[in-house]
Design goal:
The complex is a heterodimer of chains A (274) and B (1113). Chain A is mainly beta and 274 residues long. Chain A is built from 2 helices and 17 strands. In chain A, the strands form 4 sheets. In chain A, strands 3, 4, 6, 7, 8 and 9 form a 6-stranded mixed β-sheet that branches. In chain A, a hairpin with a 7-residue loop joins strand 11 and strand 12. The radius of gyration of chain A is 30 Å and the shape is elongated. Chain B has 3 domains: 108 residues, Phage tail protein beta-alpha-beta fold (3-Layer(bab) Sandwich), CATH 3.55.50.30; 106 residues, Carboxypeptidase-like, regulatory domain (Immunoglobulin-like); 604 residues, TonB-dependent receptor, beta-barrel domain (Maltoporin, Chain A, Beta Barrel), CATH 2.40.170. Chain B is mainly β and 1113 residues long. Classes of the chains: A mainly beta (274), B mainly beta (1113). At the A-B interface, helix 1, strand 1 and strand 3 of A face strand 25 and strand 31 of B. Strand 1 of chain A pairs antiparallel with strand 25 of chain B.
Chain lengths: 274, 1113
């Protein structure tokens, strides 16, 4: 009896195992792409809180600072006819913007946006320039620390000596303040930028104005305590020929290694042309 | 049985009722109420009866009703009967009805007073059996020895293999064993139980006083212990083994599991055998005396799990060499002998399943399967390699005008069509299934003569197994993969992968034989079919394109699918013949192996981050690729035919009181191998705009019409050579050996072999364009070698053996080891190539002390020293200085290995007599400690002024460890083998091992120490007929971890800047805190780079739980 049961059991089980499992094709794991639209564009500026970009619920990347589209990120691959994009605040997951792209759209463009950490704006607003006046406001990103900074024009009087490891030999510096005690996390008012004026003290030297950032308290250079790493690239007025300009300078001291930093600088005005 | 019928009127009614109720409650007795009956009436009492498919009980009730006869029976007894009765008669006697009902049942009837009582027929008592083997004081089997059962007078003679078997009723017997010039033995208290085997191996002692009648009397218990001792003690060489009886006490299903139980033997995934910590290359495996071919072309391995344990007669691993062994080795010789003529009939079926913690229920990826993969066959969907495909190299370029191409686009389109589409390509997800295995084994033995000891029989086995595995590789930094993360603090910058294994194995074994007291002829036939599909899928960054945050933010994917079908057929005939003092042994075998990788596919996917996703795209190759390119489908066909023959003669003689054996013989082994391969790259034209990103790879075949040649995909067959390899080797030898038993306690075995080896490479095509002009330098110093050997065994005390041996042996190169075939191995991240390998000569010295404290107990210490002349090792060579190199097998100058081996096997019976089960608990352990040193050499190529290519070697002065050698190896286990319950826990530890060697530490890869724990539980039900086994392996889920001493862990010694010709040891030194062993290191804060050893590969195989049921009929 046991023999009979055993054999019946085996005969029954064997084909069940064998043939129930005979999957031939399986399910392809690579999705089929219906179309690739090569005209996707997203641009803007993010500060105060990181913005996360999701496509169809899948997080793709984070934005902080300038948002722009470079190759090959200017392409959208359509598995279905539509793709849903969401921008969310990283701190609380709140969706701050939604947009749906269609496979038939020739262009998939996200309107240029400015996110200041709490509000999502369709653009960055700024005043017009007044006459030949140069005005600027600054934003010091708090992620670089709580230190307040001074921002000055340093007019360097230097000569060039190619035999030295550092061939720029500065013999004199004239400091012209632009902003003092700039606190992290808030825009300064628009401040007037003076025309950098200085007089040569030595013969055979040149004058060169730079904008540098210093620690308000210690007066040390802000980044790695080095002048050349603490400079801000911005346009300065020249005596008599400047047409007038408004600049919005965003500064962010970023970490390279534990003790090495660099200064990220953006002027928001050209990013949001009128 | 309760006997109840209709009660006489005088008995009170109440008694009747209570008795009936009690009886019903207790025994389900059927009760018939009827009138009196007498036996003689039954044949006269005629009745009318109608039974239609009625049960026995229904039949009896009807009979009782129709005839009025009281019938008494036990309900339980009738329930066991399945018989159905159909009977239709108007005039039939009650006796005829009763006979008809009870016919072909296990029931009978009898008359008792006025009742018919139904009883069970008495079951004839099954005989028991005494069986075993008779050996002499050297452990040699003794045929034609008389064994007499004193009580019954039954006499049998042992067969040519010394075995005997006597069938007896249960009882206690006395046996007398006699052979001329040996002391007669009388063994008392041999207990035979019904249906059971009583094992008794007997050791005979020579009668030193000539023909005087001396009888030794001993009890069964003592004689069996002596018999077991004799086998352990009397081997002429150093060896360890496991017999069928010992195997049957384990839960092992196949030889792969059993090998690990033998001292000093470990296996790598049931394939590669490591003996005494010496790698598989220096070990030889024989099945029934014939060498097993490797089931892999580029590595030496054999799937030992093909051989079920219930067909194994014994496994012996010889660790020292005697001249009569036809194959040279350095670690050990694994001799697996399967049964041919069983001692008794058997039929067993088994079924099992297993679950792996990393496979079962998890994602299982692979390329398209065929309908019959589970059966081990292909349905034709991998058939993409028609004959006569055109070589397109230099003859077709889609960018050229049609008139400039020798082969036209229409011809290419035609070929594309013949080759077929790409439906099978592209990774897909399957449901992983538990492993399953089934086996049917049958053994039959017949005795054609009732007067003579003749036996003829066969054993056969049919087995099926399907196993699915998913190895997770958590770190891959070998060869072409990135060697370190770009940033030390980026945990995502790591290369990972999976190796999905799908294996179906069918095995058919059919052995048979005929044996008498003096002759034995056996035939061994093994056929196995293996379908083994390895699908590797790795994700990560390459050495050339490491991770960066711009265009290499996401790692690419490398896929490699290798469906391999292997057929192995071994047929062998062998014989043993005894003519008085002469014993002749011979064997003739034919082995053929066909291994076909059909539609092996290599593919890679680039990862490109676009706006909304990471786009993974399969990359086609291009016409201008120098090699097979990024995507190709291949076919590899390997065939090997071996013929081997051995014949030997041994002559026993005596000189005074000393006995001797003179043995001589010859052997011949011819191997012939063929290898063909075809590689079909899938390419697109240089300026092609085929939108491969939008076309799933399985649809690429739809874009191969070549109507617009420049914008088509097509198969671009590239043959730089003939894509063929053919070689044959001849290995023949002769030996002379003398075995002297000089004193009762001293045995000397010595002799010598003369061995010839010749390897002829007939066709040797290069598989890579760059190797087209590469020559293989095959340096075999001479064809003939003289290989002496000697073994001395001295037993100063009864339970003590002292052994010493010396032997010279030669390990030969494999046929493919001198080919110019190269192939990328995805799991090594490198190409594996050949540089030419010659034979390795080994001088083996062994010494061993063995103590046998009790039956089955052993305590031993051994020392060994081996000198390898030209050891072959796996090297990583970086001639192109690209930091990655390739792997090849090459001869070093010499190696020395010396080591200690300790073994303990002890019953715990001595702990406390009050717990008898402790006698069945054994603790065992073995420890191998060894050290090796190699003088490495580096091959240098030079062209003489006369334009002749030559090679010479640059020798390295600093020795290092031998490839594959494990300096520390130990096994510890505890085993309980009760009659029904078996428990077994083993712990295995292997220390650092050189996995791939090289001349520079940055190329040498080591395996880190690994510990594995396994446990087994078995239980026998139904008088031992049904056995269940639960195996739990790799309980610790210990990973296989490999590493390379990274250049970040060592510095230039002061003053060595710019010196290029210094050896590493002269030029560099390890930084503080680092050594040759594994050190994880730290992240350098200044550079944000990892400083530490490179974890080249970490692979997890998961825990496996398998359950099997086997039933012996």
């Amino acid at each position: 009896m046991i023999k009979t049961f055993k054999i019946i059991y085996l005969v029954a089980i064997l084909p069940i195992f064998l043939f129930s499992a005979c999957e031939k094709d399986g399910n392809h794991i690579m999705p089929k792409i219906k179309a690739i639209n090569k005209d996707f564009n997203i641009s803007g500026f993010v500060m105060g809180d990181t913005v996360e970009q999701y496509f169809d619920g899948v997080k793709m990347r984070e934005y902080y600072g300038q948002v722009r589209t470079v190759y090959p990120l200017d392409q959208l691959a359509f598995e279905k006819d539509e793709i849903n994009m969401e921008l969310r605040r990283k701190s609380n997951g709140e969706t701050i913007y939604r947009q749906t792209f269609n496979i038939n759209d020739k262009q998939n463009t996200v309107p240029r946006f400015y996110f200041d950490g709490s509000n999502f704006n369709k653009g960055y607003t700024y005043p017009d320039s007044q006459g030949d006046e140069y005005t600027v406001n600054f934003y010091l990103d708090p992620s670089g620390g709580s230190t307040s900074v001074d921002i000055n024009i340093d007019v360097l009087e230097y000569y060039y000596d190619s035999t030295k490891p550092d061939p720029i030999i500065v013999v004199n510096t004239t400091t012209i303040p632009i902003a003092e005690n700039v606190k992290p996390g808030e825009w300064t008012p628009y401040l007037k930028v003076q025309i950098p004026m200085a007089h040569q003290q030595q013969d055979g030297t040149e004058l060169y104005p730079i904008v540098v950032v210093r620690d308000s308290k210690t007066k040390d250079y802000y980044v790695n305590n080095k002048r050349d790493q603490s400079t801000v690239t911005m346009e300065l007025p020249y005596d008599g020929v400047s047409p007038g300009k408004v600049q919005s300078i965003y500064l962010n001291k970023k970490t390279v290694t534990a003790k090495m930093f660099y200064l990220e600088v953006y002027d928001l005005i050209p990013l949001f042309p009128r | 049985m309760h006997n109840v019928g209709k009660l006489r009127p005088t008995i009170p009614f109440i008694m009747k009722l209570s008795l009936i109720i009690a009886a019903l409650q207790l025994t389900f007795i059927g009760v018939m109420l009827a009138s009196d009956v007498r036996g003689q009436n039954l044949d006269q009492l005629k009745i009318e009866i109608k039974l239609n498919h009625a049960s026995v009980e229904e039949g009896l009730i009807t009979l009782s009703q129709k005839s009025g006869i009281r019938i008494s029976y036990e309900g339980d007894m009738l329930e066991k009967e399945r018989k159905k009765i159909t009977l239709n008669s108007n005039n039939i006697t009650a006796a005829a009805v009763l006979r008809s009902i009870l016919e072909k049942t296990n029931l009978k009837y009898r008359l008792f007073k006025n009742y018919i009582i139904i009883d069970a027929k008495s079951v004839p008592q099954q005989p028991g059996r005494i069986k075993g083997k008779v050996v002499d004081d050297r452990g040699e089997v003794m045929p034609s020895t008389s064994i007499k059962i004193v009580e019954t007078g039954q006499t049998v003679q042992t067969m040519v293999d010394g075995k005997y078997s006597i069938s007896l009723k249960s009882g206690t017997y006395t046996m007398e064993v006699s052979y001329i010039s040996y002391q007669k033995q009388r063994i008392t208290d041999v207990v035979v139980r019904s249906g059971e085997n009583t094992a008794l191996d007997i050791s005979m002692k020579p009668d030193s006083k000539g023909l005087s009648e001396v009888t030794i009397t001993s009890s069964y218990k003592k004689a069996s212990v002596v018999g077991l001792y004799a086998q352990q003690k009397n081997m002429s060489n150093l060896s360890d083994g496991i017999s069928a009886e010992q195997i049957s006490a384990t839960p092992d299903k196949h030889v792969g599991e059993t090998l690990k139980r033998i001292t000093g033997v470990s296996t790598n995934e049931n394939r590669k055998v490591v003996i005494r910590g010496i790698a598989e290359r220096y070990n030889v495996s024989l099945l029934n005396g014939s060498a097993l071919p490797s089931t892999d072309v580029q590595e030496r391995d054999f799937e030992f799990n093909l051989i079920p344990t219930n067909l194994v007669d014994n496994i012996v691993v010889a660790k020292s060499i005697t001249a009569d062994m036809p194959y040279g080795f350095a670690g050990g010789l694994v001799q697996i002998t399967t049964k041919s003529v069983p001692e008794s009939n058997f039929l067993s079926v088994s079924a099992g399943t297993s679950f792996n913690s990393r496979t079962t229920g998890k994602d299982f990826l692979g390329y398209g399967r065929s309908k019959y993969d589970y059966l081990g066959f292909d349905d034709g969907s991998r058939d993409h390699f028609p004959n006569g495909l055109l070589n397109l190299v230099g003859k077709f370029d889609p960018t050229k005008d049609e008139s400039q191409n020798e082969i036209k686009a229409t011809q290419v389109a035609e070929e594309n069509k013949r080759i077929g589409g790409t439906e099978r390509l592209g990774a897909r997800l399957f449901q992983s299934m538990p492993s399953q295995n089934y086996q049917l084994s049958l053994g039959r033995v017949y005795s054609p003569s009732k007067t003579k000891e003749h036996k003829i029989g066969f054993v056969g086995s049919l087995s099926y197994r399907n196993t699915q595995s998913n190895d997770y590789v958590s770190s891959m930094r070998r060869g072409d993969w990135s060697h370190e993360p770009t940033r030390g603090d980026d945990p995502t910058d790591v290369n990972t992968g999976n190796i999905y294994g799908f294996n179906t194995t069918l095995g058919l074994l059919l052995n048979g034989g005929f044996k008498t007291e003096s002759h034995q002829i056996n035939t061994y036939n093994l056929y196995t079919r293996i379908f083994d599909n390895r699908f590797s899928r790795y994700t990560g960054w390459s050495f050339e394109n490491p991770k960066n945050e711009t265009d290499m933010k996401y790692g690419g994917i490398l896929e490699d699918d290798r469906p391999k079908f292997t057929d192995l057929l071994q047929n062998k005939v062998s014989g043993i013949h005894r003519f008085n003092s002469i014993k002749i042994e011979w064997g003739l075998a034919r082995t053929s192996l066909k291994s076909e990788e059909r539609d092996a596919i290599s593919a890679s996917m680039g990862a490109r981050e676009i706006g909304n996703r990471v786009l993974y795209t399969y990359q086609p190759g291009t016409v201008s690729d120098p090699g097979p390119g990024a995507l190709h489908r291949d076919e590899y066909l390997y065939k090997e035919n071996n013929i081997d023959g051995v014949i030997s003669a041994a002559y026993d003689f005596k000189l005074g009181k000393t006995s001797h054996i003179f043995k001589t013989g010859v052997n011949y082994l011819k191997k012939h191998a063929f290898y063909d391969w075809q590689v079909l790259p899938i390419v697109k034209g240089t300026n092609s705009t085929v939108p491969v990103e939008l076309i799933p790879i399985q649809d690429w075949g739809n874009y191969m019409s070549m109507e617009n040649a420049e914008n088509s995909l097509f198969y671009f067959k590239k043959d730089y050579t003939s894509n063929k390899f053919e070689a044959k080797s001849i290995n023949k030898g002769g030996f002379v050996m003398l075995d002297h038993k000089l004193l009762p306690s001293l045995r000397v075995v010595w002799g010598a072999r003369a061995e010839y080896f010749k390897l002829d490479t007939i066709v040797n095509s290069a598989s890579l364009l760059r190797d087209k002009n590469v020559k293989i330098f095959f340096e075999e110093k001479k064809d003939w070698y003289f290989l002496p050997s000697a073994n001395i065994t001295y037993s100063p005390l009864k339970d003590l053996n002292l052994r010493a041996s010396y032997a010279k042996s030669a390990v030969r190169p494999g046929l493919m080891e001198n080919s110019r075939f190269s192939r990328y191995n995805p799991n090594y991240g490198s190409v594996v190539r050949s540089n030419g390998v010659s034979s390795t000569l080994i001088d083996n010295y062994d010494a061993k002390i063995e103590l046998f404290p009790g039956a089955g107990e052993l305590l031993s210490v051994a020392y060994f020293y081996k000198y390898f002349d030209k050891p072959a090792e796996y090297y990583r060579i970086d001639n192109e200085n690209n930091g990655r190199g390739y792997i090849t097998i090459s001869n070093s100058d010499w190696a020395k290995v010396r080591g200690w081996e300790f073994e303990l096997r002890k019953s715990l019976g001595f702990v406390y007599d009050g717990l008898p089960f402790l006698k069945d608990v054994y603790v065992s352990g073995n420890l191998t400690l060894q050290k090796s040193e190699v003088r490495a050499r580096e091959i240098q190529f030079e062209t003489t002024p006369a334009g002749v290519d030559t090679v010479y070697y640059k020798y390295l002065k600093y020795p290092r460890a031998l490839y594959g050698q494990v300096p520390l190896l130990y096994n510890a286990g505890i085993q309980y083998a009760g009659k029904k319950l078996g428990l077994n826990v083993t712990y295995n530890h292997a220390g650092y091992k050189t996995f791939i060697t090289g001349i520079d530490p940055s190329l040498v890869e080591y395996e880190r120490p690994r510990s594995q724990m396994d446990a087994q539980i078995s239980y026998r039900f139904l008088k031992g007929k049904l056995e269940t086994k639960l195996n739990m392996s790799n309980l610790l889920d210990a990973p296989f971890r490999y590493f390379i001493n990274d250049p970040t862990t060592y510095d230039l010694k002061p003053g060595n800047e710019g010196k290029t010709n210094l050896e590493w040891n002269d030029k560099y030194e390890y930084k503080f805190g680092f050594s040759e062993k594994f050190e994880k290191g730290y992240k350098d804060k200044a550079t944000n780079r990892q400083v530490g050893d490179r974890q080249t590969s970490t692979r997890y195989t998961g825990r496996t739980f398998s359950l099997s049921l086997s039933y012996n009929f």
